[in-house]
Design a protein that fits this description.
Strand content: 25-35%
CATH class of the largest domain: Alpha Beta
Order of helices and strands: HHEHEEHEEHEEHHEEHEEHEEEHE
Radius of gyration: 30 Å
CATH architecture of the largest domain: 2-Layer Sandwich
Structural class: alpha+beta
Number of domains: 3
CATH superfamily of the largest domain: Multidrug efflux transporter AcrB pore domain like
Number of helices: 10
Number of strands: 15
């Protein structure tokens, strides 16, 4: 029976001793591709997006729109490659989101936008700040979110634990950005008493200047001795509310006026800026009634890295910190992976 071209090719592979080697090589290549190919939740389409922030303290939303937003939109429209502009005008400031066409190089978009904005500084109205430009990309979307919660822990305590965890997670390979959401940071709060201020002949501006001068540390030089060089620093930062109370803020009737004489000083949590609450549902293994305060740590990765591997490394790092930087009774729930 006469064979055609396809039959002769098939016969050659059937009789060849190289065929098993080719099959093994193809299987190994497929296995290598599965392991090494980066896994992405979002498609890696290059669409440069820039956020342009401008502040104008004391101005209304309409004044910001007329004096800041509209002129800035006209300038940004002149940048090559811009497809859309989205603007938000609010009391005291404006935000303009600049979106470029697909496949425009991110570096080119940044350079063109910076050149356009910074070459027109002379047109900034009085009272308007210089523009702050931030780059956004698809890799800014977190691939992993960890929520810390626990019975008996408030937002202040959870925030401090999450801060320690964040420092450890930042050391994991291919982690680009981390963000803490919820909880309260430590803050030194000074509540002035107007009557005591008047009696001591001081003012809030004088107190702010005293803080600026005293709550700082700077290099004061160096000296050499014994084949070694020693750096000298002057000043120190406040470490407690008691140190802040002893700050001298003025002189009245021949005696120093301390901050504790004219104000209440408290060392504790800041005013909440955002709230995170967590409550496991009835199907959860550790379901409890109600919900409580929580803090969420989000993790983003570098471009073209494997999201699955990065998330696994972070989770392994978290488990290694159990009982060391993370108390045993603090629960960590993966709320996004």
């Amino acid at each position: 029976m006469k064979q055609g071209l396809a039959g002769r090719i098939a016969q050659a592979f059937i009789d060849s001793q190289l065929t098993p080697l080719i099959i093994i090589a193809a299987l190994l290549l497929g296995l290598f591709s599965v392991v090494e190919t980066p896994r992405e939740e979002e498609p890696q389409i290059v669409v440069p997006v820039l956020d342009v922030f401008v502040s104008m303290p004391g101005a209304s939303a309409r004044e910001v729109e007329q004096r800041v937003t509209v002129p800035m939109e006209k300038l940004l429209r002149e940048v090559p490659g811009v497809e859309y502009l989205y603007s938000i005008s609010q009391p005291g400031g404006a935000l303009v989101i600049v979106r470029f066409y697909v496949r425009v190089r991110e570096e080119d978009a940044i350079i063109l936008t910076y050149n356009k904005m910074y070459s027109n500084f002379d047109r900034i109205p009085p009272g308007v700040s210089q523009p702050l430009i931030k780059v956004r990309s698809i890799d800014d979307v977190p691939v992993l979110a960890l929520t810390l919660w626990g019975r008996g822990y408030d937002g202040f305590a959870l925030r401090r634990i999450a801060g320690e965890l964040e420092q450890a997670v930042k050391q994991v390979d291919d982690v680009s950005e981390t963000t803490l959401v919820g909880g309260q940071r430590r803050q030194l709060r000074v509540t002035l008493d107007p009557q005591r201020l008047a009696s001591c002949h001081t003012s809030p501006a004088a107190i702010a200047q005293a803080f600026h001068v005293s709550n700082r540390r700077s290099a004061a030089g160096s000296f050499a001795q014994g084949n070694q060089e020693f750096a000298v620093e002057a000043g120190r930062f406040f470490t407690s509310a008691e140190e802040a109370r002893r700050l001298v803020v003025g002189v009245a009737a021949g005696r120093p006026t301390y901050l504790g004489d004219v104000a209440e000083v408290a060392d504790g949590p800041e005013e909440p800026a955002s709230y995170v609450f967590f409550g496991p549902g009835g199907a959860a293994a550790k379901a409890e009634p109600g919900d409580g305060p929580a803090v969420t740590l989000t993790v983003a990765k570098w471009k073209s890295t494997n999201a699955t591997i990065v998330a696994q490394r972070v989770l392994e790092k978290v488990e290694a910190l159990r009982g060391y930087a993370i108390p045993r009774d603090v629960e960590i729930t993966v709320t996004r992976n």
